[in-house]
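Q: I have two molecules that I believe assemble together. Could you output structure tokens for the complex as a whole instead of separate predictions?
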Amino acid sequence: DTEVTQTPKHLVMGMTNKKSLKCEQHMGHRAMYWYKQKAKKPPELMFVYSYEKLSINESVPSRFSPECPNSSLLNLHLHALQPEDSALYLCASSQDPGDRDRVNQPQHFGDGTRLSIL
Amino acid sequence: AQKITQTQPGMFVQEKEAVTLDCTYDTSDPSYGLFWYKQPSSGEMIFLIYQGSYDQQNATEGRYSLNFQKARKSANLVISASQLGDSAMYFCAMRVVGDDKIIFGKGTRLHILP
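A: Yes, here they are, computed for all two components at once.
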């Protein structure tokens, strides 16, 4: 079992639907990440939250809206998605983004949400 | 700019043999960390091993070891005594000081044959 929990594990939605992906960690990590991963490709970074504030947005379309309600939770709100948005969405966390000299912090990933857009 | 290169898209290895997965990297930063992740077909990304740029010794974690050759900018993963459960995609990744992001290579799909 991973220490980063993602729900739901699978999601099928139409292009007009609104849904949310949820991510939770209880390791005291202060950085949280959303990635999109297509089949047979590496994860692509979407967003980074550092101390509950959005620090990186990798030019993600506005139909993806991240939210970090507190240090343990990370949401990704989805609206009006396109078929090409079908992918595995991975959440990750790492310890202390404030200490940028510490390159030894791995990111711990959840199991992901497999999203299919009809 | 940082870059990770994994030149082996796929590998087939007999069970119980040792496996070496290649990774080369490029960065001008003197301080960086290198990571290996395993991703089974179920999807989760599992952190395996870490090597820091200033570490004098190669990292080891159980059956995993990292062959770190700094001058050649390579950080190969060695899996000893491979098992069927080692079949997965393996990603090499790097983080440099001052950056919240990690850079992933394209991955190597490892197949362990019975």
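A: One point stands out. The radius of gyration of chain B is 14 Å.
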